[in-house]
Design a protein that fits this description.
This protein has 2 helices and 85 strands. It is an all-beta fold. Among the domains are: about 120 residues, no CATH class; about 45 residues, no CATH class. The chain is globular.
C-alpha cells in the first residue's frame, strides 16, 4: 500500500512553482529527442493511477494530440502479421483481446471487448488491475476507424478527454483521424463541484498539419474559485531534406519496415539514396521552442547529417536574468540497413565558461542502438583536455551483463577500475552481480550480490525478490535479507504478492565474537532469533493488510512485538487514523480533490488545518491558537511578472496582525536566485545567487538591502564534472580543492549489518535490541549503562552497572492506550510528563503546540517545588517567563522582538539590541547603563563613565583546558569530580539530558553549592537566582550581575546594577 507523503510538515513549506512541461531530452543514438507534459493526477487506491503524460517524440506521426504528440498507453498492434506490444511484460490471449502482465504483477487488459478494438489491427487498454484488486478503467470513443481515449476512471476520480473537429483530417489505411483533443479534465464525480483540473490544448496549423502550441492548466477548488498555472507555449521549425538527385534509371519506391523510403532498381538492388523519415515528408515541422511560462525558453536547433535531420543544439535561456546555457551534438558513423537505425558515435558538448569548462561526452552505440561505451572530457584548454576523466564500457544483449568503469582523472594510468558482471535468469532478473574495484597498490575490493526470486502458482509475479545476499571477496556476509509474501513459505508467493515478513541478518557469529568476546550478551532476550540451519542473529518485521467491508487497515509489527496500525479512508486512498504501540492516535483528514492533508489531530487533541489553492499548492496552515482569518502560515505565489516569487507569512503572535515575511525568488529552471525577508526599512536579500553557463552557482552575495549596494560576492569555479576546485571569498582569500584527493581516514566505528554502531570510535561497546535501541553500553573503563525501552522504543529507565538495581533515571509518559498518570495535563497525551533523576523530580506541562511551558522541579531530599512557566509566541520564540517564587512573589519577564523576530528588548534588563543588515548584533544596551559594541573585529564594553574594557578576539585553541588534579568520571564519561592540587574539590551532578545541574565546591570548611535545573534559573547556596536572556543574573536580595561574553561564550567581564565592574574573571 503506497502511503501518501503529503503532511503538515510539507504544508509548512511552500510548493515549488514549475512550468507544465519537463526538459527536452535529446536522444543521441538517433539524433532525435523527446519532451513530456506530465498530467498530475492523484495516486488513487494503492497508487493505481496511470502515469499520464502528453509525450512528444521527434519524427512521430500526427495524431489526436497533434504532430509528434501522444498519450502513451499499453496497446497491441499488428506488426508483420503478428500481435506485438511495445510495453514490456508477458502478453497472452484473452478472448478476442489480450492480457499484458507486467513484472510487478499488474495486469493490463487490452481489447477484450468491442469498445477496446479498432478492427483487427489494434487492441487498446481497457482496464488495469493490480494484484490487490485496485482497478483503473479506460473508455474509448470510435470515429471513422480511429479510437480516441475518452475516459479514465479509478477510485473516486475520473479523467475526461474532449475532442473537436480538426481542419487537417488525416487519412490512412482503414483509419481517418478527423478529431483532435481540445481539453482534459480531472473530476471527482461525487463532489458538489466535480471539476478539479482542466488542461486546455491549443493548436496551430503548420503547413496543413495540426501542431500543439499551448497547454493551459486551470485548477478549481470546492468553492468554485480557480487559478491558472503558467502557460506552456510550443513552436516548431521545419527540417527540410536536401534536394534529391535525379535517378537516370527505371526504378520503383517501396516502403521499408514501415519507415522511410528505399529506392530499388529493376533488379531490386538498392541505388544510392537518402532516407525520407515520415516526419520529413509534407506536413508539420519539429519542435523548436519551449516556453515554460515562468521565464525559461528552450530552443532546439536541427541540422542535416548524411541526409538525416538531427538535433544539433539545445539552448536554455532565462528571460529574467539573461542566463543562457547550451548543449551541442556531433554525429558520426551513420548506421542503416533497409532503414536508418542510428549513429555509431555521438559527441555531446555541454558548453561552459570561465567558471566551469565545457564537458564533452563521447558515446559509442551498437547496431541495436544500445550504448556500448562512454567517455567524459573537460575542454579547459589545458594539455590534459585530451585525457578522459572516466570511461564506461558495456557489453551483453539484449541487456547489459558487463560494465567496466575506468576512472582516469585525466592521468595516463587508471586511478580505479570497477567491473560489474551480471548473470540473468530467464525473466531478465539479475541473480548474481559481482562488482570488483581495483586500485593501484591495493587488493581488489569485491562485492557479490546473489538474489533468488519468489514463484507463484499463476506465474503472475516475475520480480519478487525472495532472498538477497551480499558477500565480499573472501565470502564474508555483508548483508542477508529474506522476504516472504502472502504468509507463504520462503521462496513462494500467493495471489497478491503482498510482503508479509522481512527477515534480516543483523549479527553474524564472527561479528558477535569480535565485538563482545567470549561471553556474548543474551541477544535472544532483546528480540533477536536464530534461523534453523543458519548462523548469526536475525530480526523479523511483519506486515499485515486487511481489507473487508469495515475498510482497509495495515499493521506493521516490529521485531520487539510493537505494532503500528493505519486505517484508511472509505475509498482506500488515504491513511486516516494511525495508532502507535502505546495507543496514541493521530487522525488525518485528506482533501480528496488535491489528495493532500487538510487536517491533523494529534494524540493530545490539538487540531492543525491546512488549506490549498485551486492548483493544490499549500496556502494556509492554522495551528492551535490561530484562526482562519489570522493563520499561522500563509503562502503566496506570483509567477505572472518576472521571476517566480513565493512569499511566506509567518504569524509572530497569535491573534495579532504582525507577520514575519520571507520570500524566495527563482528562475524558470527552479534555481534559487534570492532569499529575502521584509523589514520596515525595506526588503533585505539574505542570499543572492548567479549561475554560470553550466547551471552551477558561480557567485553568491549575502545580506544587502534592495536598492542598495550589493554585498561583495563569493566566487566559485568547477572542473568539467561540476566539482568545486576554487572558492574566492569576498576578502580575496582563496580555497582550492583537489577532486581526486581524499581526507585521512578516521577511525571507523564497528557496525552491524544494518549499519548501527556496535563499537564507536571511543571504544564504547553497545548492545542493541532487535529494533536498534541501545540497551547496554560498556565503556573502556568497565562501567556499564543499561537502558530499558518501552514498547514504543522510548527510554523508560536507566541503570548503571547493575541491570537489576534501582534505576538512576525513570521516565513517565502519558499515552492514550495506558492508564493516565497523575502528572498528565490537558495537552500531554503522547508526551513525557515526569522525569526522576539524581537532581530530583521534574514535571512537565505543555501547550497545544507541544511546547514544554510548565516545569515543576522538586529537588532531591528537599520538600520544596520550583515552578517555571513559559509562554511562547506563534513562531515558537520566547515571549514571557514567570520564575519560581524567591520569597517576594513570582517575577515575570517579557521579551520583545523586531519585525523579523530578532530580540530587541527585555524591559527592565536589556534596553535595546541593535543589528546590521546581516542580522549580526552591533550593539547591546543594558539597563545598568553598560553597552556592548561589535564591529570591524572589535568588541568594546562601555559603562556610564566611559570605556570599561575592550574584549580581544580569542587566541587559537591549542587544546582543551584540563582541570588541575585527579578526575573522576562516571559510566557516561561525564566529569563527576576533581580533587584539586590546591585543595579545592569540585563535584558535579547531571540531569536526564546530560546537563550539568549541580556543582559542589569545597575548600576546607567552605562549601558552595549551585543547582541549575533549568537555563532560566539557578539555586546558589539555597537562594534563587534568575537568569534573563542568558546574560543577566538577578539574585534573591535584588542584586543584579550583568555578564559580558567573549567570542567563545566565556564570561569576560561582569558588571553590577550601576554599571561598575565587579569581577574580571568569572
Amino acid at each position: 500500500m503506497a502511503l501518501l507523503r503529503s503532511s503538515v510538515q510539507d504544508a509548512a513549506q511552500p510548493a515549488r512553482v514549475r512550468g507544465l512541461g519537463g526538459a527536452f531530452t535529446p536522444e543521441p543514438a538517433t539524433g532525435g529527442g523527446s519532451f513530456a507534459v506530465p498530467l498530475d493526477l492523484p495516486a488513487g487506491p494503492g497508487g493505481i493511477a496511470p502515469a499520464l503524460a502528453l509525450r512528444y517524440v521527434t519524427g512521430a506521426p500526427n495524431g489526436p494530440f497533434g504532430a509528434g504528440f501522444a498519450v502513451p498507453l499499453p496497446n497491441v498492434r499488428l506488426d508483420d502479421g503478428r500481435a506485438r506490444s511495445r510495453t514490456s511484460g508477458r502478453l497472452a490471449r484473452r478472448g478476442e483481446g489480450f492480457v499484458l502482465t507486467a513484472r510487478s504483477g499488474t495486469r493490463h487488459f487490452l481489447g477484450t471487448s468491442d469498445g477496446g478494438r479498432s478492427g483487427t489491427h489494434a487492441w487498446h487498454l481497457e482496464r488495469t488491475e493490480d494484484a490487490l484488486g485496485n482497478t483503473t478503467a479506460f473508455g474509448w470513443a470510435h470515429h471513422s476507424g480511429q479510437a480516441y481515449l475518452a475516459r479514465i476512471s479509478y477510485g473516486p476520480y475520473e479523467v475526461d478527454f474532449a475532442y473537436e473537429p480538426r481542419p487537417d483530417v488525416l487519412h490512412a489505411d482503414r483509419v481517418t483521424t478527423a478529431l483532435r483533443c481540445s481539453r482534459i479534465e480531472l473530476r471527482v464525480p461525487a463532489a458538489a463541484r466535480p471539476l478539479v483540473r482542466r488542461w486546455t490544448l491549443g493548436y496551430d496549423v503548420d503547413d496543413g498539419a495540426s501542431v500543439l502550441t499551448s497547454v493551459a492548466l486551470t485548477g478549481f477548488d470546492a468553492r468554485g474559485a480557480e487559478a491558472a498555472a503558467p502557460l506552456l507555449r510550443l513552436a516548431y521549425a521545419r527540417a527540410d531534406p536536401p534536394a534529391a538527385p535525379r535517378v537516370p534509371v527505371p526504378a520503383r519506391a517501396r516502403a521499408s519496415s514501415g519507415s522511410g523510403v528505399l529506392l530499388l532498381d529493376a533488379e531490386d538492388e538498392p541505388l544510392p539514396w537518402y532516407a525520407l523519415e515520415p516526419g520529413d515528408l509534407a506536413g508539420a515541422g519539429r519542435l523548436s521552442e519551449i516556453d515554460n511560462g515562468i521565464g525559461l525558453r528552450t530552443a532546439i536547433e536541427y541540422t542535416m547529417v548524411e541526409a538525416v535531420p538531427v538535433v544539433w543544439r539545445v539552448t536554455h535561456r532565462e528571460s529574467a536574468t539573461g542566463h543562457a546555457g547550451a548543449t551541442e551534438f556531433e554525429y558520426h558513423e551513420r548506421r542503416s540497413g533497409d532503414a536508418f537505425t542510428g549513429f555509431g558515435r555521438v559527441v555531446q558538448d555541454d558548453l561552459g565558461d570561465e567558471h566551469a569548462p565545457t564537458l564533452r561526452t563521447v558515446r559509442w552505440f551498437g547496431d541495436d542502438g544500445l550504448l556500448r561505451q562512454e567517455e567524459t572530457y573537460g575542454l579547459d584548454d589545458s594539455p590534459d583536455a585530451v585525457r578522459p576523466y572516466r570511461r564506461i564500457e558495456h557489453s551483453g544483449r539484449p541487456q547489459w551483463t558487463k560494465s567496466v568503469t575506468t576512472v582516469f582523472e585525466r592521468q595516463e594510468k587508471p586511478v580505479s577500475v570497477t567491473t560489474t558482471e551480471s548473470d540473468l535468469d530467464a525473466a531478465g532478473n539479475p541473480v548474481r552481480v559481482v562488482e570488483t574495484t581495483e586500485r593501484p597498490g591495493q587488493e581488489p575490493a569485491v562485492r557479490e550480490t546473489r538474489t533468488t526470486y519468489a514463484t507463484d502458482p499463476d506465474h503472475r509475479f516475475a520480480a519478487l525478490p525472495a532472498r538477497v545476499r551480499e558477500l565480499d571477496g573472501a565470502g564474508k556476509v555483508l548483508s542477508d535479507k529474506l522476504f516472504r509474501y502472502d504468509e507463504r513459505p520462503d521462496g513462494s508467493a500467493g495471489s497478491q504478492g503482498q510482503l508479509t515478513a522481512r527477515e534480516e541478518l543483523v549479527l553474524p557469529d564472527a561479528l558477535v565474537a569480535d565485538v563482545y568476546g567470549p561471553i556474548p550478551p543474551d541477544l535472544g532476550r532483546h528480540g533477536h532469533h536464530r534461523r534453523d540451519g543458519e548462523a548469526g542473529w536475525w530480526t523479523t518485521t511483519f506486515h499485515r493488510r486487511v481489507g473487508n467491508v469495515t475498510g482497509l487497515r495495515t499493521t506493521t509489527t516490529g521485531p520487539r512485538g510493537d505494532s503500528h496500525e493505519v486505517r484508511y479512508s472509505a475509498d482506500r486512498c488515504f491513511p486516516e487514523v494511525a495508532t502507535d504501540p502505546v495507543g496514541n492516535i493521530t487522525a488525518t483528514r485528506y482533501d480528496v480533490r488535491t489528495a493532500r492533508v487538510c487536517e491533523v489531530i494529534d494524540p493530545a487533541g490539538a487540531v492543525t488545518t491546512v488549506t490549498h489553492d485551486p492548483l493544490g499548492r499549500p496556502e494556509t496552515v492554522v495551528r492551535p491558537g490561530d484562526s482562519a482569518d489570522l493563520p499561522t502560515l500563509r503562502h503566496r505565489y506570483d509567477h505572472h511578472h518576472g521571476p517566480v516569487r513565493v512569499t511566506t507569512e509567518q504569524r509572530a503572535v497569535s491573534g495579532e496582525a504582525e507577520v514575519l515575511v520571507t520570500a524566495e525568488v527563482r528562475d524558470g529552471a527552479g534555481r534559487l536566485l534570492q532569499r529575502r525577508h521584509a523589514e520596515l526599512l525595506g526588503d533585505v536579500v539574505d542570499e543572492h545567487h548567479e549561475y554560470c553557463a553550466r547551471g552551477l552557482v558561480c557567485r553568491t552575495s549575502r545580506a544587502f538591502r534592495i536598492g542598495g549596494r550589493r554585498a561583495p560576492a563569493t566566487e566559485y569555479r568547477y572542473d568539467a564534472l561540476a566539482r568545486p576546485v576554487r572558492v574566492t571569498a569576498p576578502d580575496g582569500s582563496v580555497r582550492t580543492f583537489e577532486p581526486a584527493s581524499s581526507a585521512p581516514e578516521a577511525v571507523e566505528p564497528v557496525r552491524d549489518l544494518l549499519g548501527r554502531v556496535l563499537r564507536d570510535a571511543d571504544g564504547v561497546v553497545h548492545v542493541r535490541d532487535a529494533a536498534g535501541n541501545s540497551v547496554q553500553a560498556r565503556t573502556t573503563g568497565g562501567r556499564t549503562v543499561y537502558r530499558v525501552h518501552d514498547v514504543a522504543g522510548r527510554v523508560a529507565a536507566v541503570r548503571v552497572d547493575d541491570p537489576a538495581g534501582p534505576p538512576v533515571t525513570t521516565f513517565t509518559y502519558h499515552d492514550g492506550g495506558l492508564p493516565v498518570p497523575l502528572e498528565a495535563g490537558p495537552h500531554s497525551c503522547g508526551r513525557l510528563v515526569r522525569v526522576t533523576d539524581e537532581s530530583g523530580v521534574t514535571l512537565l506541562g505543555y501547550d497545544a503546540l507541544g511546547h514544554a511551558v510548565t516545569k515543576r522541579w522538586r529537588p532531591a531530599h528537599v520538600a520544596i517545588e520550583y515552578r517555571l512557566d513559559i509562554v511562547r509566541r506563534a513562531d515558537g520564540r520566547l515571549s514571557q517567563v514567570t520564575y519560581p517564587d524567591a520569597g517576594d512573589g513570582r517575577l515575570t519577564v517579557r521579551y520583545q522582538y523586531d519585525d523579523v523576530s530578532r530580540l530587541v528588548s527585555v524591559p527592565g534588563f536589556v534596553d535595546t539590541v541593535q543589528y546590521d543588515v546581516r542580522g549580526r548584533r552591533t550593539a547591546v544596551h543594558y539597563a545598568n547603563g553598560v553597552s556592548e559594541h561589535f564591529g570591524n573585529g572589535l568588541h568594546v564594553v562601555r559603562g556610564p563613565g566611559g570605556l570599561l574594557r575592550e574584549i580581544p578576539p580569542p587566541a587559537p585553541v591549542e587544546g582543551l583546558d584540563q582541570p588541575a588534579g585527579i578526575e573522576i568520571r562516571d559510566a557516561f564519561g561525564r566529569l563527576r569530580g576533581v580533587h584539586g592540587d590546591d585543595g579545592v574539590n569540585e563535584l558535579y551532578g547531571y540531569d536526564h539530558a546530560g546537563r550539568q545541574v549541580r556543582t559542589l565546591v569545597t575548600h576546607g570548611t567552605d562549601i558552595h553549592e549551585t543547582l541549575t535545573p533549568d537555563e532560566l534559573y539557578a539555586i546558589e547556596d539555597g537562594e534563587l537566582v534568575i537568569v534573563v536572556a542568558g546574560a543577566v543574573r538577578r539574585h534573591a536580595d535584588g542584586a543584579r550581575r550583568y555578564l559580558h561574553f567573549d567570542d567563545r561564550d566565556r564570561v569576560a567581564l561582569v558588571t553590577d546594577e550601576k554599571g561598575a565592574v565587579v569581577d574580571l574573571a568569572w
